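queue> pop job 88
queue> type: inverse folding (structure -> sequence)
queue> payload:
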């Protein structure tokens, strides 16, 4: 839409419809270099929605490159300056403070905050929460872990569908010439997300245990949706270090709850997860929080990786 030269990292410009895309499959035109509607996405889950709903009418670029851990993103001066030239920006407030600040200061006409399109929830302290029991006050976790709203809404297909609907409406309003196609693509995406929700509901309905261990607390919405209990080694921040008491607590809990597997992820170190698994005689596997797609991902797009996550959960939880 805006024909300008810009240097925000370009990932892929989606083809019309729900074509499978990978975050690093091809280099599209630099943002603003075409007459398409120019959308800047903050990281992969937002990029995927823009591509799927926008189809051939949008040129999508991302601020978080494949393989980059999104929580730690720092924008370059050029990225911050160029952001204001986009037709729309799609981001998730609270996940990436640097992006929040840049968006607030930008002159982008259409600012789509995914956090306003569904309800964010407080999943409580991950360090001492289990089946409604809280630790004594003297063992309270670090301040940054208390009462933080969980941003990982895309890992719940139902919440992700709510966000997708809001994105579709925003694009229809901002680019009315292509509203009919945006609606068609959004409806098709909604159906695929509903099917994915059914797969998870059916696949996790009857399991030997309901408890799973993760590297960081990314799966609170998924656990809540499908009646599971997530126990995270670290908190909402994947780089935070667990206390020795937390590690001991998890070792004890693994025996009590029949936990078989410690899940780690692709974009952060697996050292702590593997150490816990070794000490507690547990297996390890990947449960991907889908914050980015790389050549290490078990799938080329959101749906493929989520289906891989489901398979891993069914194995670890003893699905029957």
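queue> result:
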């Amino acid at each position: 839409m805006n024909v300008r030269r810009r240097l925000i990292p370009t990932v892929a410009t989606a083809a019309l419809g729900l074509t499978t895309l990978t975050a690093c499959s091809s280099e599209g035109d630099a943002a603003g270099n075409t007459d398409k509607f120019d959308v800047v996405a903050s990281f992969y889950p937002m990029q995927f929605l823009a591509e799927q709903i926008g189809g051939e009418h949008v040129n999508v670029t991302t601020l978080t490159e494949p393989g980059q851990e999104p929580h730690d993103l720092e924008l370059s001066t050029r990225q911050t300056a160029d952001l204001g030239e986009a037709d729309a920006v799609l981001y998730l407030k609270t996940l990436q403070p640097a992006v929040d600040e840049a968006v607030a200061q930008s002159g982008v006409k259409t600012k789509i905050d995914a956090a306003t399109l569904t309800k964010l929830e407080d999943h409580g302290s991950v360090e001492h929460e289990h089946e409604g029991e809280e630790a004594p006050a003297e063992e309270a976790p670090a301040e940054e872990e208390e009462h933080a709203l969980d941003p990982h809404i895309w890992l719940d297909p139902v919440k992700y569908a709510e966000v997708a609907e809001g994105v579709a409406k925003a694009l229809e309003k901002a680019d009315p010439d292509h509203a009919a196609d945006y609606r068609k693509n959004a409806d098709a995406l909604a159906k695929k997300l509903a099917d994915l929700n059914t797969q998870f509901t059916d696949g996790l309905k009857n399991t030997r245990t309901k408890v799973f261990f993760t590297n960081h607390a990314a799966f609170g919405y998924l656990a809540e949706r499908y009646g599971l209990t997530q126990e995270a080694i670290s908190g909402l921040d994947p780089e935070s270090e667990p206390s020795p008491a937390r590690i001991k607590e998890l070792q004890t809990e693994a025996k009590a709850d029949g936990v078989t597997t410690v899940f780690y992820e692709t974009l952060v170190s697996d050292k702590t997860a593997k150490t816990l698994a070794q000490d507690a005689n547990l297996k390890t596997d990947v449960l991907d929080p889908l914050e980015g797609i790389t050549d290490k991902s078990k799938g080329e797009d959101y749906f493929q990786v989520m289906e891989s996550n489901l398979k891993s959960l069914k194995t670890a939880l003893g699905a029957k």
